Records
---
Amino acid sequence: MSRQQDGEFSPSFYMLRGAKLKKDKISAMQLQCFFILFHAAAVAYAVLFLHPYYGSNDEFSLAAIASGAYGDYTHYFIYLHSGFGWILKVFYMCMPGVNWYTIVMYGLIFLSLTTVGCTWILCSEKTGTVLSVMLVLACVCPLYVEMQYTKTAAVVTAAGYTLLFCKDRRFRQILGGILFLLLGSWIRFQAFGMVSLIAFGLWLSQALNAYREKEWKRFLIRDCIPCAAAFTLIFGSMILENVLVYTPGSPEEHYKEYDKARQQLLDYGVPEWEEYQADYEAIGLTRTDCMNLQNWLIADYDRYTADTFRAVVAFRQSRPFQWEYLADYLIILGKKPLFLLGVLVTLVWLFPFFFVGKRKGTAVFYPYLALLGIYLYFIKIYRVLPIVVTACLISFLILLWSAEEEGIAGQWEKRLEGRRAFAAVVAGSALLTAGICIRRLALPALQPSLQSSKPSIAFRNLYDTIAEDKKLYYVFDPFTNNGVELGYSIFEKLPDDYLTNIFTLGGWETESPQVVSNLEEYGQRNLLTSLYMSDRAVLISNTLMEHIMLHLQDIYDGIFITYSKVNQIGDFDLFALNYKMSGLKDTEEYTASLDKTYTAENDRYDVFEATVNMKPEELEGKSVFLWMQSVESGKKRMYQGTWQQQDKNGLYSMLYDTELSDTDQVRFMIPKLSYPLDDRYEVHVVIRDGDKGTKIATDNLLYRSNPSGE
């Protein structure tokens, strides 16, 4: 009998077998390289053709802090853990001209999806490759195009759990999984918590397997100790941050308490004025205060404090559960390719291999229950939370596929053999779902960039114009909440002094130490107070203007609910608040006359032009106002005007500038009056110098030569 017949083989057989194994290993590596190249190409396509943008105003604030726009580079961020802040700070200190915030976030997303895909390919080459490609197709838009740190934290955390619960785990995989979990918690702890809730199904499935197979020691070492180590690091880093950053009495500790109270009120809904009027009035709040709270216009530190928020929470009753909101979530889920992909794989696993996969039913069904539980919780807060929905779906898809990929791959060849009809249905469903993802990627490429829109270009021109004068500061209200209309690409580093002269009014970010520090450079911690006291503060946005005027009227005695339009840049209207100046002095040393009136902008504004009998050197640095008092009612109003001096940008001067062409002409553009400014009003031109105003004798010539007023 030959050696082969005795079960022994020649050396050439072992060489061929070794070559085959090596070839199989190289094949897996080739598939991983293919996946990485495909992933990189998808990211390049998204960056070049899909016009990425920040998915929320929070993201814009974080990028501004990271880039140094609020001042010096800092490890403290409003929402992120300080450990992650140190990582960003190091990058910015090494190369300050690069927008590292976006690059680091992109890098973490790319690394997380690549880690998940390569792990799947190691477990099952064919099935893992297909699932990895579909995962990238489904995640390009929600992660790379609409970048938002909650979703970034979710995918980083999901990658960590994939490494911790994948098959044949090695030390470096466990270490990588722990690191991913730590980074995910640092980026957004709430997202880490939601993903952990969904991932609990994987751990529970392993626990049930250990119970059936009596392998408790292996389960403890492989599935429990790594998770315990990760949680120890995460909560330990939180305790360390509380000790080193949120020290008692520090600005960071103050903001933490403030933001915690803000979340308790605004995130869970502000009660209606009509229902709680007596409760509001008992704590000294007015209807206007309630309106401001509901619209998140809370940038008045003196008015809207943590105590204010807690006082409202104390009398607010719990809302009944809004079952009708559940339909909104179901509609959102039905439109998400991420959810469709998860359902597809579940159906592929459950129906053909139901009995085979019965022991893994926990890993299949639990993610759906966790997803439903998370959404039911948030229904008590918001009607729709697209960011939370998407973040949960990303982790849901990754964890569900991680749990079932091996089983599906192992059973396809056995169970689908000879079942061509079913196999065709499965393949068709996969192609259909992939087609939906591809369609979502193709359509945005045919549309213009949001950063090149008219509002974006107008804002860039606005910023370039007003940033030239470092002595003036302005307030703006973005058109939307994601910063896209601010005209900046997410790959573009914001100017270092971006928020030194421009502040966002209305968000809770204005209570953060960085913004407070910048405001104090102007001698005012409260931005609303500075607007009240300075005629050099310009406001943008009609809606925001109305809220501010109502708010100021309730707080400061003598405030007039009036404003005037002073300039326009592109699509942006620039307004000035009008207020009472104490100690106005009358003088007959100088005179003025109202010479001309007409309407503007489809009769929305009355425009008055006047002449002031003063020399340029007497007017230098002074602003001008139109003071009027009704003869019948005694009601007074005051509106700010501009000098008929235009700078190189075509803007009229609010403060007299002798470097521009001399003039004695002024212009007032005020909201449409109810009746003409005739003898029923006493009118005066007021010249303001700092905090002092002089009311000069004014001759009203508007209707003497032209009774019609035209």
---
Amino acid sequence: MNGTQWIIFMLVVQVIHFLGTWKLYVKAGRKPWEAAIPVYNAIVLMKIINRPKWWVLLLFIPIINLLMFPVVWVETMRSFGRNKLGETWAVILSLGFYIYYVNYAMDVTYIQNRSLHPRSAVGEWVSSIVFAIVAATLVHTYFIQPYVIPTGSLERTLRIGDLLFVSKFHYGARAPMTTVAAPMVHDTLPLIGTKSYLNKPQLPYFRLPGFKKIERNEIVVFSWPADTVYRFFRKEKGVKKPIDKKSNYVKRCVGLPGDSLQVINGYVFVNGKQLELPDRAKPQYDYMVYADKGVSSRLLEQIGVIGFQRKFLTAQLSQQQADALSGYAIGYKRAADGQIEIYTNESGIPIEVIRGQRLSLKEETGRARQATLTDDMVSALRKDASIDSVIMVLEPRDKRDINLFPQNSDYPWNNDQMGPIYIPQKGATVALNLKILPLYKKIIREYEGNTISVSGNQIRINGNVADSYTFKQDYYWMMGDNRHHSEDSRSWGYVPENHVVGRPIFIWLSFDNFNDSKGRINKIWNWKPRWDRIFTTVHGDGEPKSYFKYFLIALAAYFVGSYVWQKRKRAKNKE
């Protein structure tokens, strides 16, 4: 729905409102025409139902208005004496059209000074719940949204199991484009597992003013541009999603609009200079670690390496023992000598399980092991006398990965060797030919809504021959700090400005053991708090500092202060 269509839609809504309520306006002592003027009719209606004028604002905020409309319908009915439970359900289930019946078929009387206090405890409870949902949805949609890190693409900068608060107001809150959706859920209804929204009608893209622009190296939450996934981890037919209902991703912005970006031997270069990451960034790469006597798992654990595999050998394994190992093993294999190889993640197999099942296991540590390492980890290994060498795993130039952007044989790129590539800026114009087109085809067709056709060497956009294109919005290049284990812009290309959600600002909780050995979310009782990460900021200089103890002190002071104030208030009332 474009701007013109939305204006027409709003005018239709105003006509529907006028036709269904003008007689009620008259019975409330107002003029019929006051029901017809947009915005003004809402202000008058608030006076009629004896509710504050600021409610009008809630009626024009997408998503919030879906919650407020039923409230206003019910309040309108009660202002004319229609208080029965059946009529309340009738106006809600008819999407407000029951008011037409009241307006034309009933001889109702306006109750000017009706009591606004609920008549029962249930009514008071329902009223409180409704406005709690309205307030929470307003905050969630336009100010702060909670978010959890489920994958290791930013490991160790942001850890799996970090629970974040994401600011919507830093870059300016993106107004919802999907107008009919369940509040405070994303694309799927909990428990039911069905879609939580209707694809139509859609609002045009609009962003409230923010107080800062996205800067290079900032961590950003955005709607995954390539998302057509109905349910993750299941092979199903893809679905077309509205922008604001695409899955949320979090990455580091390494390229801004107008930049020229290149990846050389795994490192990012922007405008010809190697990207300097902030000191809190912990980029990781895959390395091969070599040691003549075997690379010790204990050594890798000591320096904090995660994500590496361990291999255990046993001569035999009963079904009972295999069942006991199912929560820890990620694979089994029968070796040529008849032994059973058991593969696990870095946590291995707990000693109590080994003893309880009377397992006879031997860990095999090969002379060469692959591990994902930060620079500090690489330095620690190279200093260890037992390690012979540590070498980064790199794909050579001109070895094409067919799954990477732009998925075209003219660009033999891979995760370690890519570019140079221009990141589009709003208003900038690029020359178009068949060689360049694959880089921007998705932008022109999908993100900016044009048609493209190619005939011979001729490119047509919206039916017209084109040898250049001018971009309608800004684009960004997002990458994970876990360079060899991140699906990012190297896979699906640019992130449009209208896909930007917000800026992570705070880690309010963090848990180890968030995922099990197979990458699934663990049961909550298996989570282990990372106390040093709770209440830490995401951006900033120096090592993150936990403000958890200060929060506890402030919380204790609040409760003590509230108790003292209530005690004094009760004493004063007795006097």
---
Amino acid sequence: MQISSKWKRLLWHFDRSLHTHQAWKALLWPLGLGAFLLLFFWLIGLIWPPTPMTLYTAGGVPRWAETTGLFFDAGNFPLRSRLPLLFQFLIVVVGSALLTAFLVATLTTILLNRRDNYRDGRTRYHFADHVLVLGGSQTLIHLLKTLDDKPELKDKTWVILTSADPHRLRDLVDASLPEAARGLTFVIYYGNSADPATLRSCQIELASSIFIIGEDNQPEQDQHNIECWNALRHLRSNATQMAQCYLFTSQPVSGQLLRALPQESHTTLETNVVNIHQSIARQTLIPQSHSSDHLTLDRFLLTADSTRFVHLVIVGMTPMGLAFADTAAQLCHFPNFSSSDPHPLRTRITFIDPNADVQLECFRTQCQPLFNLSHITLRTDVNGWQSSRPDKEYGDFLDIEWQFLKGTIHQQWIRDFLLAAALDNHQVLSLAICGDSPSRNLADALSLPSQFFPFNDPDTPSAATPVIYTYQPGSGVLAQAAHTEVPRFHNVVPFGMTDGSFDPLDTTRILAAKRINYIYHKVDNGKPINSIPLEPLSLNNLWQQLSIAEKQQALHAAAFLDPLLRNTKCPADSADNDKGADTMADTLARLEHNRWNMEMLLEGYSPLPTDHRTLLNQALASDDSQLRQNAAVQNKRFASLHHVLKDITPYDDLPADGRQRLLTVVSHYHMVR
């Protein structure tokens, strides 16, 4: 019984060795057995009584040489020797079986295992200056589709670490690979991307670009991605090569937590947080070429003298819908808004959702500071509505207002509401249908009243025509065909086909954000700005000193840059033109401050009450140095401990030095492009 168990355990080690990725273990068996048998035959040959020679003599050939020759080459049989013929035959049979069957079969198995281990992603190699992708979600395909805008990544090896099926991912990549990525070198690894040992086997410290994208349908994907990021930072603590890291998230709370972190502890990892839904909304609302300028929310209509306002209607308070509203709230700041006007032209963002009242309370809880300063209307039916105004102790100065309709787009009173908005000449109307079902979104878009689809040439769209954005995660083939092939539906614009894709403009936007940070650094230190470094390497030292929150603020400012300059019709040489330069800078500063107010409120910062803010500003401007110092300490404590910023205020209420700082910064924005 004991011998049987040992024999079975020996066989288990034998079978296991043939499937290991370490080939030397599998080769040990035939080589070790061959060495043992050869030594055994040597010993038998030495002690075997000599056999009388009848025909020829063996001469002086040693018996161990005769045995070795028979063992490795059957052509030496029958060898004229003193060894018995039966013994020679036994050596030949055992040697031939071992070398031709056992050893060849083992080598074949090793090669097959190596092929399978490669396809299964279990074999590791050595790479340097490579692109490392942690996760195998659909984002990978869309990331590859942007390679035309990233020539620096085309010549690098791409190492993809996934915990999903490597075979499926390899087939997906091969089938979906765009033309721009045909010549890329791909290596797919299988493993846990949050495991330090697995990350170390990917040469994490030698990678030049890292994308943390996660897996499709992965529970708690954001949590897993952040866990990967933490492990990555720890492993790169002693790295010497700079790496760009893109951390993908999908939930707003993840971005809030990440922005609360201090600046990165070392300078070899440049982290950029990419919210998937916000990235999609940004790509949709910020045109990437002048040919799609008619798809902007303002359609180039809102100048300082315009009597129109932007009205964005979002159908579905889904994560995509909330991201669409968040992005629009940071982009829709126009020069025709004046808080001193009795009826100011505010951008209006309207949500339509069957649970709008419940969602409103959730939204209000998450963004309480924003809603304390906002005009809000909730309508539950044709006649049932309630509204709230900004808290008087803070002031009424925001250029965004909110509206919530409890119902569906199929209800008649909501269709009447949409029709009235479409026919209102004072509104620049856009709809974003952001439900979870692509087919239902398209059906809802095409079932809108006929007044939403005036017959126009798709090549010459009318600015007055409402634009209907329809969320199509996946291919969006039907919606794209309706947009391009059917003139009636040319204003139905699909978006989200590049679900979670890497924005092609992000590389340019990051560089713009670094330049904006450079301008602020120069202005805050009282240094003149004659030029801005063109290369990102010259700006990295200042960039690395920022926290993730400060980097995100600079990136938001960079995203708003083109709409800002466009809405004010700022010429490229405006800084060199004295005539009207002061007015232009004042307009730019007002719009940028309005955007900053909205960004801070969306991030959860609160303003100070008007009276308290006035007293604090007076103390900061006092001639008493001790009073100024105490006020500065108090102001810093408000921001760091209580999340309260005194500069969330109307532009005209900013201190004189604050306005001058902002004027100086925006007057150099034309140099950022």
---
Amino acid sequence: MKKLLFLTLLTLALALLPVMLLRGDLWLSSDFLHQEIAFILETKRMLATGAPWWSWNTYLGSDFIGSYAFYTLTSPFVWINCLFPESLLRYSIAITFVLKFLCMGWLAWAYLRKMGVSRGGSAFGAYLFTFSSFSIASLYYYHFYEPIIVFLLLMIAVERLLRRERWGMTCMTLAVFAVVFVNFYFAIGTLIFMLIYVIFRFFSGEVEFSFKVTLKGVAAVLVGILMCSALLLPVLNQMLVSTRADAQSAIDAIAMLNLLERLRTLFMPKIVEGATVFVPGGSGSYSNEACIAVLGLSLSLVYAWRHRDWLAWLLVVLLVLYVTPLNGVFTLFTNPLYTRWAYGLTMVIVLCTARTLDENRSVKRGVAGYAILASLVVIAFVVKVLIDNGFHVPGIRFIALMALFFVGIAALVLWAKGKMSLRWLKVAVVACVIGQMWLFLINLGTDSHSYKVLTQKIERGGDDVTCRCDFRADKGFLYYNAGLLRNHPSISTYHSVIMRDVDVFLRTATRDFWAKNKLRPNIHLDEMDALLSVKTIYDIDSMGNVLKRDNKYFIPMGFAYDSYITRSEFDKLANDTTVNLPLLMLGNLVVEDIDRGVLAKSMKHGSLDLPCDLDSVVAERRKCVASHFRGNSSGYMAQVDVPKDMVMVFSVPFASGFTATVDGIPATIYKANLCMHAINVAKGKHSIVVKYFPPGLRTGLWLSLLGVLLLLLMFWLEKRTTAHRD
């Protein structure tokens, strides 16, 4: 174990330190920079409020728990990062990366030891698991390691329960809680994998099947999930009113299998999460390969050939699931090409490999056959790449990837023939791991410098939400979350989950909207800026130059209407491409048909003809606006002074968790302008206070408490049973 931890630290030092010294941090490009860093910063800000309910920096505003439970909120490693000041985040992320790898190595070692693997085999197997291609590719997604770590906890807990060891049921419950709490999405794939695993274990002959153990396992799973209710109920509420930005059905015919790419991910080291580097338009960006350095599938296939036990059959079944559309079972209607359960397959490969090494028998024939099979797949892949690139070699990264593969195959064959000792094969594995990490980090670190320069050019926002800002970039991927990164409430967000009403609003109002995680229209409309109370505009070109300017059509947050049209009337006009829909919404409030009878009392029915020019409409809306608008993590407040009974509208997404008072008297919030808040206000001066509390959180807390009580009862019963046995 000590050698494993030392070798893990040495590998990380050789792979990560040079990058840190060269660039000053481990911040990678694309999603890591736009989402991981931005989301950690937002989590830090929200947790510091003590009431992290509503994030003004996300979308046009969003439920914080529902939006960040998948990414950051439930990660102990993010909590560690939140303890550091923002200026030290680049160093704290490096520290938590090291901690994550150490945790993976330690728990993988513990599982392999429990499965009867020798100490040396467990250490080597744990190293292979810790630095598999899946783990290295997950550097790109900072939040992927937590699910891998708790998956290992669950593997150990399942074995304790199946073997009827002490505290098996309690350990199982705590492990399920950790799996679901840390990442509810990954928990789906993990629990499906564990169900398959348990079925094969019951038929192994190594553990005795009984309905009692089965019932204990089911009870442990249910109690573990129940303990997560305080998280799951708010998340469920958010999911019910949200849509995945780039969702695909798990049986979507156009997102079917690329077999060659899938096979490649089992044989070749991984260096970058993005197929366009190698196969333009391919599916590799979702493959999340399971390959382990140098050895690959070789010894696991040898094990499966020699044995006909539960582990061999489990490996075969998982390989079939991995390379066929059945993989979609683990994704449950998100994207069938995602293979984010590959850590499960990787552990089975590692266990087979470690047992084969412990047998200390010749593997010459098996390795030779594997080398031929893998080489044929890789050569076919190379031919495809060359064809797709007009027979031009894609670049140095492609050559390096090929070199890693063929050097690894050579080392494997030499070892199998007795020309190389196992110790030198392990050296080759370490060298391959460092090579993979180097290629991966160097390739994906190009944007971090641009981001640092950008943050120096954009001023930081304040704690109060006074208005939104519009960050516009020259189609640059880097700047999607510029507002979120710099603590500016912005109308531009790069996130995976979009509130359905906001999605409909933007798609309908702009008629030109790119929905892949980016909540922002492609085209610029001054009318949209006015409607969404945009005051400050940051124009960012492809070189990172920033031009700040005020929006001349700015209308403060909270403005009054005296005329309306109904939603059904608006929908009829939505199909007419000659109609300027944002301008129409500025001229007349769009009210839901069901609310017409109430809101019509304060307004007249407006004309369906287009209003006058934008200047006159904006001037009309500016006549009656809220003053002293202030937002916080639990809602907002504003002062208004209206000359007659009117309806005040705030560009805050409508959600069921909001409650409002006007001068301390409860008031109803209506949905208007497709997704915004509308509140009836009588003539005179008033104080409007709107509070937000995540729907389901109170009920979830009570259910979580019930789950904890059941866990304590379970612990007491197991303690009592253990005492009787003794």
